[in-house]
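Fill in residues.
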């Protein structure tokens, strides 16, 4: 991670290298967090489906109960898919924010002009 408050790139290559580094770190962190979450959700839902089918096969639940349970599991899986879509949109926003933050700090440090005050702050 670069100290953006003191980041003054001498050329476009320095800017691109820092931007690439920042975005790579962001993407890696996002992947580690979200791939584990989704894997856990899918694993849990899969186990629940197997347990429901087993309970139905053994006669410990009735077909109408199994149908309601499976419908709830279907809804839970749909929610997981919506979560992954939302997290992808959240990543896209973070990529944009990070890009403009790096470029904004470079411009501020080189020219004294803060083009993105909502992202570039000395707080």
């Amino acid at each position: 991670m670069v100290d953006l408050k003191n980041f003054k790139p001498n050329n476009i290559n320095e800017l691109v290298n820092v931007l690439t580094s920042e975005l790579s770190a962001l993407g890696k962190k996002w992947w580690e967090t979200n791939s584990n979450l989704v894997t856990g959700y899918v694993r849990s839902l899969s186990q629940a489906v197997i347990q429901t089918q087993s309970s139905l096969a053994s006669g410990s639940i009735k077909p109408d109960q199994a149908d309601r349970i499976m419908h709830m599991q279907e809804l839970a899986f749909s929610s997981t898919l919506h979560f992954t879509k939302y997290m992808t949109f959240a990543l896209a926003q973070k990529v944009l924010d990070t890009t403009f933050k790096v470029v904004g700090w470079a411009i501020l440090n080189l020219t004294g002009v803060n083009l993105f005050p909502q992202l570039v702050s000395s707080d």
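The mean pLDDT is 93.
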